[in-house]
Amino acid sequence: MKNPGFTLVELLITIAIITILASVSFVGYGQRQKAVALQKEANILVSKIEEVREMAISARYFHNDLPAGGYGIYFDSSSPNSYIIFADCDKDRFYDKTGTPCSGYPESIETIKLENGVKISPLPFAVSITFKPPSPEVVIKTSDGATHDELTIRLGIQGFSKEKKIHFNSAGLVYVE
What range does the domain containing 98 cover? Predict the structure, then answer.
């Protein structure tokens, strides 16, 4: 009578097949993980831009005051790991790093830090996108005082060839490419 168990050869072949399948599934895992992190941060940035627009449309109060210039999002050319949501209390359509123009408070509401090694590609100037109620009126302004009709923010990860582009224009359209 034959033994119904596995032979050593059958067991080794099974282990070899499982090992090959596992190694194939892990090839490119790091690259896929970076692509997912990049897409996640791009989606978060778009949702934060939409949140700022909603703050302006709903005329949300900031420290018991309605910011005269609305609300905005600020990208600092020297800080590629974060961006700032702010209340434009002094109507200059740009984020003020110092001072307390909002009834004794600074303009900063929230600083969002990018995660997973994602960075904003260098910008030639610091940029503020502001939304002034009620429409809202949208202004893209750089630190040199110029206003622009459109802006592209590039997100990337060092050592990863792909990037995400977030396009924004003065009509308020925002999308990820």
Answer: 29-176
